[in-house]
Each structure stands twice: as C-alpha cells, then as structure tokens.
Specification:
InterPro entries: EFG2, EFG_II, EFG_III, EFG_III/V, EFG_V, EFG_V-like, EFTu-like_2, G_TR_CS
Number of helices: 21
Family: Belongs to the TRAFAC class translation factor GTPase superfamily. Classic translation factor GTPase family. EF-G/EF-2 subfamily.
Strand content: 25-35%
Catalytic activity: GTP + H2O = GDP + phosphate + H(+)
Keywords: GTP-binding, Hydrolase, Mitochondrion, Nucleotide-binding, Protein biosynthesis
Pfam family, one: GTP_EFTU_D2
Length: 777
C-alpha cells in the first residue's frame, strides 16, 4: 500500500498530502477518479481545456496581421548543427510551449515521429505557426541528413527566407553546402546563426571565415560573442553597440540584460565593437547605393551618429537582394542568443509581398497556391500543405488542380503546429495552410480557384510571353512550377508476410509514395516482386519501420543493392519488322549511338524523311517504345542513359495500332543495344570524413581499399577533414566500420556526385557476381 498520495496537478493547484494508510481501496479509487489526469509538461504546446491560469499562448490567439508582417522561414543546416533545438527555443520564447524540449529526451515539438525521437534526428519537415512582437511567423524545421534532401528542397520552394544554422566549432560542413545550393537555386534570402558557441573548440572567427570561403558569401557581422566555449556568456549587438548578457541563474534563458557599452566599464569591448560597426557600415554601403548616399552625405565624418534604424533598413535591403548574409551567434542548448535571432528574422528576412513572384500578375488576385507536402492522417485522411501566393482559401470551397486537371473540395482548413492542428475559418495570401479532403493533389501541384481562373491566367501568361518574345513553354513552366525529384540510388525487394497481405502493402506503399516522392516503387516483371527504391540506407530503413508501425505490416526486405546504370560505347544500326495480322505491319530502321552530353532519358531524333506528316499519336507511340526499351539494359537490367537514337525509316501499314508501333520500336532498340559494346555506370559519391588526426592513417587506408579517391585533406582545429570520391557500392555499412576504426570519434557525410564508368575488371567481377540474377531498377 502506498504510504502517501503525492501532489497532483489539477487546475494548477496542489492537493495536500493525504494519509491513505488506513483508507479502504474503494475510497482511494473514488478519490483518484475525481482527480483529473496529470498532463506531462514536455508536450503541452497549446492551452489545454480545463487548465486555469495557463501561462502559454493558445494557437487560437495567433494573430492575423497584414501581409507585410508575415514571415515564411525555414531552418536549414548540416545534421546535428542544432536546428530542432533552435526551433524548440523559438517556440518556448514566443510563448507557445510550456517547457523546453530536448532532442536527446525525445520530447521536442517538431520531431514528433517515433523514428525521429528514437534516433535523435529530423526525418520529416515540420511546420509550426507562432507570433513574435506583432509578426506572424510560419516556420519549417527541415532535416539535415542527405537521405532526406527532398524534404529541404520542397520546403525551400515555398519559403520567403531561411535561417542557416552552423556548428560554431565546425563551420561549413558537407550538407551545409547542399542546402545552401538549394537556397541559391530558389533565390531564398537567408541569415546565418552560429550555434553551439558554448561548445569546446567553438571559434567565431573560423566559422565566419568558412562561410566566406566555402559558401562564397559575404558575411555581415551583426553580433560578436562574449567569450567562446565554456566562457560564452552572451553577445554584443554591433548595430546598437549594446551587450546582451544572460543571467547564469536563469534556467530557461528568458532572463537577460541589454546594456549599452560604456567607455568607463567596457573600454576594450567598446573599441572592438565600434571598429566592427564601422566595418559593417562600409560593407553595407558598398552593396547598397541608397545607404551609401546617406552615409557619404550626412554621416561621413562620424559613423557613430548613424541611427541604428537606418543601418537595419539597409541590411534588410541587402539581405533581400542576396548580396550578403547577416551573421548572428548564440547557443540554443544553453538558451542564449535565440531572442535576438527572432528579432533578426522579423527585421531582416522578407515578407511575402517583398518577394518578386512574376506569375502573381497573371492571377489578378484569384487563388494561386502550391501544394508542397502531403501527410496521411489515420483519422482525417490526406493532409495537404499549401503555400498561398494570392487569394484566400476557405473550408468547403472547391479548388482546381491544374496539374491533375481535376476539381476537388476542401472539407476543412487547419493551422499547422507540428502534429497538432487547429481548425480555422479562412487563410489569406502569404500563409501556409493545411487542408483536409483533397484526395488527388500531390507534391508540386498548382492550385487555382477554378478551371476558368486557371485558363485566364494561362492566357495572360501567354500574352506576356509574346510581348517579351518568350516561348510558351516557359510561361507554362512558371505556371506549374513544382519540385525536382532526385533519382534513387539504392533498391531492394520488399515482401509482405503473406500473399493475403499484398493489397495492404500496396496501399501502404501508395500512401508513403504520395508523402515522399523520392521513394519509388516498381514491380519486377520476371519475378513479380515489389522493388523499393530510395535515397540511401537510412531512407529505406525508415520506410520499412514506418510500414511496420503505422500500417501494422511485418514486411521482409531483400539485400540492399546499388542502382547501377548502363550505356553503350559505339554506334549501332538495327532493323525490325513486326507483323501482327493482315491489318498490323510496322518496319523500323534506327541508329543508336553514345550521346555527347550526360542525359538520363534517351535523346530522340528523326531523319528528315521520317518527320514529315508523322501523326502525333505515332510520335507518342515511338517515344513510349524507346523509353520502355531503355528501362532495362542488356547487362544488368539497369536503365540505359547517355544515348541518342535516330529514326531513319518508319513504314506503317494503314490501320496499324499505336501499340504495335510502340512494340516494334522497342524491340528494334533492344536489338541494337544487344549488338553494341556495353558499359556499366556506377554511382559515385562525394565523401567528407571528419576524423581526429590520430586516426587519419587507418581511415585513409580503409578508403583506399574501397576504391576511394582522395581530393583534399583539410585541417579544422584538432580534426582532419578528408574530402574525396568513393563508389556507392563500396560504402554500404561504412558507418559501423568507421566507428570501429576511430573508436566512435569520426563522422562522415555522403552526397551523390554523378555516375561514372566502371573499369573492365570491376565490371567483370560485378557481372559474374550477378550472373543468373536479373534485377530491375
């Protein structure tokens, strides 16, 4: 029997300790039944009904300001730089969580999947909405692992700004380069946050220099750190010449002081800050003509008289123009520097109306939105994330999907907050919405209010294109801008526990494919097996785990295999004649040769005599036949790439079906490929290994055995950075080997570089190992 009944949280009041030694069990049960259940503090991020005196904000209280006060931002970085921890602090200081979550404890808001909490990494991007000092911020926390690069890509596609988080002890790392290039591709303005300033080995100077050298960016130092490593206690605001010091006794980092730097007490620091401010003013003046005129006119003799507001406005313009990046610093884990980061987000990153989206003029205020992510909810069904560029979305309204050419109805409209959502009556331009009821909309689909609205926008785009002498296809591409899906590099077979469970597996894979377009599922026509294609070992492992947990299926994975490609080395000719019956007759003559430039799909050319008066249906049949023939090469059954096909002769008997044309062309291409000299192409990976100097030799020796090519060995404080290339086939299971070689002290990052030809010896070994086994990619 319990000796005491401890404190229960009911309406935020404490119940006095009750002596229950002599109480009957029935009475204890009655007391417990009357008590409301204890709510764990770590996951409360909106006001719960029944809780009185709650000091956290309700999601219903989120403001709806004018579009100028909306910020759509993403947090992006290399794995383990502190993205999720920074997001957790942002939500806490903005008042939407009760307590600080921790990645190691598995209780953060944005890492809500079981797999994320177990591994301590972000797998899915998660959206949260909150307000800060009169601004509404829609924030997306993105993954840092290379296997989930698509998650970053599709989020950056719809964001107006980004915060790049860096480990101050490591500076720019491998995946930092990848996400930075993605942000460049989508022209996303960004600011840099040098995190982990409290970490041993943290170096503000080194991190800034790596941004300048590796990212080819111009850093604007808006802050200086007060100490580094364990001595880190706060930051200096260079713009306002103030120091921000956090109270050592404050456990949550809310308590900090902002003090102006004085000659009496901070002479050395004031001098250093003044020099940094003057350098910042000169740097911004070089990049912004309006600010340069102001500085040279009124403040040329004394930069100290320049108001902070004028400098901040100029930094905002420079950030928006992407000619430089503001740099801030702090330690999210130690709760220092996050509030100034929030201020910088609202001050320097653009609002939706400041981004120049050319296609908006074509819609004239009508609804224009882009779906960028789909989730499957067991209760609600598919949840579609949308970025609204113009117009308004309301529940129970019909929308037109331009890509799918279909009309659907939105049943409910939700405001996203990680895995918690609240229903809202409408959402305007510039925001990110979560919709329920769309069964056919997929990632990258453009949404309009109606088909007539979409056609009107297309006509305006076409007229604009004619004025500017553009191709119509460009206008169409802008109208239907989507997300580029990377090709998978790994594949394996997946089988259900029994034949009866195959439909359930097919449904699970269909749902997961809609959520994650980088996951490809194919059927082996010879064995009938289902083949799973993914971006890496972790990607396929996560998919396998999700099928088990979310769909209750104990599936079996075959051995993981590399997605090879094939090509040819010489020019070959082939002729084929297909006779179905009296009505179907096709004769084809074509040439297949290596293409000079790299291309995943075959390049089709028509000889002059063939292209004349060839019906569109016949052209489509020819293209289908060529593509189907190039899906399986003659060596490994891998896709064919880097080939050009020229059609020299095509004789079609009147009444011949397009299916027969396609079959004949496909057979003729296959015949040509078998005659040619063939070459296997293997995926080559960019590899970056961070290893202590003591373990460098065994790591290099191991890479040499794996057919690795070392490009460069850099020094980063006490560590060595090995940069090179290694074939993907040789790197499977490398994490375990690397941990063993370095006693767990080394880390590595991989990224697909390109496909390269295997040497004859390695190709011969591969073919002999795979002989008798046909695998379809």
């Amino acid at each position: 029997m319990l000796s005491n009944l401890r404190k229960f949280g009911v309406n935020n009041k404490k119940i006095p300790i009750l002596n229950i030694n002599n109480m009957p069990c029935s009475k204890i049960r009655a007391i417990l039944k009357r008590l409301k259940p204890y709510v764990p503090p770590g996951r409360n991020y909106s006001s719960l009904p029944g809780l009185v005196g709650n000091d956290i904000k309700s999601l219903h209280s989120i403001i709806s300001p004018p579009i100028a006060k909306i910020r759509n931002i993403g947090i992006m970085a290399h794995i383990d730089a502190g993205k999720t921890t920074t997001t957790e602090r942002i939500l806490y200081y903005s008042g939407y969580t009760r307590s600080l979550g921790d990645v190691d404890d598995g209780d953060t808001v944005t890492d809500f999947m079981a797999q994320e909490r177990e591994r301590g990494i972000t797998i899915q991007s998660a959206a949260v909405t909150f307000d800060w000092k009169g601004y509404r911020v829609n924030l997306i926390d993105t993954p840092g692992h290379v296997d989930f690069t698509l998650e970053v890509e599709r989020c950056l596609r719809v964001l107006d700004g980004a915060v790049a988080v860096f480990d101050a002890s490591a500076g720019v790392e491998a995946q930092t380069l990848t996400v930075w290039r993605q942000a460049d591709k989508h022209k996303v303005p960004r600011i840099c946050f040098l995190n982990k300033m409290d970490k041993t080995g943290a170096s503000f100077k080194y991190a800034v220099e790596s941004i300048r050298e590796k990212l080819k960016a111009k850093p604007l130092l808006l802050q200086l750190p007060l100490g580094e490593g364990k001595a880190f206690e706060g930051v200096v605001d260079v713009v306002s010449k103030e120091k921000l010091v956090w109270n050592r006794k404050s456990e949550d980092g809310k308590d900090f002081e902002r003090k102006p730097l004085l000659e009496m007490s901070d002479a050395k620091l004031l001098k250093e800050t003044t020099e940094a401010r003057n350098a910042l003013i000169e740097q911004v003046a070089d990049l912004d003509d309006e600010f340069a005129d102001l500085v040279l006119g009124e403040f040329s003799e004394n930069f100290d008289l320049l108001p902070a507001e004028k400098l901040q406005t100029a930094i905002h313009r420079v950030t928006l123009a992407q000619t430089a990046v503001p740099v801030l610093c702090g330690s999210a884990l130690k709760n220092k520097g996050v509030q100034p980061l929030l201020d910088a987000i609202t001050m320097y990153l653009p609002s939706p109306e400041e981004r120049n989206y050319e296609f908006l003029q074509w819609y004239k205020g009508d609804l224009c939105a882009l779906s960028f992510k789909v989730l499957h909810d067991k209760q609600r069904g598919p949840l579609v994330f949308m970025r609204i560029y113009s117009g308004t979305i309301k529940p129970q309204s019909a929308i037109y999907n331009i890509n799918g050419n279909c009309t659907e109805r939105i049943s409910r409209l939700l405001l996203p907050f990680a895995d918690q959502h609240i229903e809202i009556p409408s959402l305007t331009a510039g925001n990110i919405a979560l919709t329920v009821g769309l069964k056919h909309t997929a990632t990258g689909d453009t949404i309009a209010s109606s088909k007539s609205s979409a056609l009107a926008a297309a006509r305006r785009a076409e007229r604009e294109g004619e004025k500017k002498h553009r191709q119509n296809s460009e206008a169409e591409r802008l109208l239907l801008a989507g997300v580029e899906i990377p090709e998978p590099v790994f594949f394996c077979t997946i089988e259900p526990p029994s034949v009866a469970k195959q439909p359930d597996l097919d449904y699970a894979l269909k749902c997961l494919q809609r959520e994650d377009p980088s996951l490809k599922v194919k059927l082996d026509p010879d064995s009938g097996q289902t083949i799973l294609c993914g971006m890496g070992e972790l990607h396929i492992e996560i998919i396998h785990d999700r099928i088990k947990r979310e769909y209750g299926l104990e599936t079996y994975l075959g051995p993981l295999q590399v997605a090879y490609r094939e090509t040819i080395l010489n020019v070959v000719h082939a002729t084929d004649r297909t006779l179905g019956d009296k009505r179907h007759l096709v004769t084809v003559e074509l040439e297949v040769k290596p293409n000079e430039t790299c291309c995943v799909t075959p390049v089709l050319k028509y000889a002059g005599c063939v292209s004349e008066d060839l019906p569109k249906a016949s052209q489509e049949a020819i293209e289908n036949g060529i593509h189907s023939a190039c899906l399986q090469g003659p060596l490994l059954g891998s896709p064919i790439q880097d080939v050009a096909i020229t059609l020299h002769s095509l004789i079609i008997h009147p009444g011949t079906s397009t299916t027969m044309i396609s079959a004949c062309v496909s057979r003729c291409v296959q015949k040509a490929l078998k005659k040619a000299d063939k070459q296997v192409l293997e995926p080559l990976m960019n590899l970056e290994v961070t290893v202590p100097g003591d373990y460098l030799s065994p790591v290099l020796a191991d890479l040499a055995q794996r057919r690795g090519t070392i490009q460069e060995i850099q020094t980063r404080q006490e560590n060595k950075i090995v940069i090179g290339f290694v074939p993907l086939a040789e790197i499977m299971g490398y994490s375990t080997v690397l941990r063993t070689l370095t006693s767990g002290s080394a880390t590595f990052a991989l990224e697909l570089s390109n496909y390269q030809a295997m040497n004859p010896q390695d190709q011969s070994i591969l073919l002999s190992r795979r002989s008798g086994l046909t695998q379809v990619l």
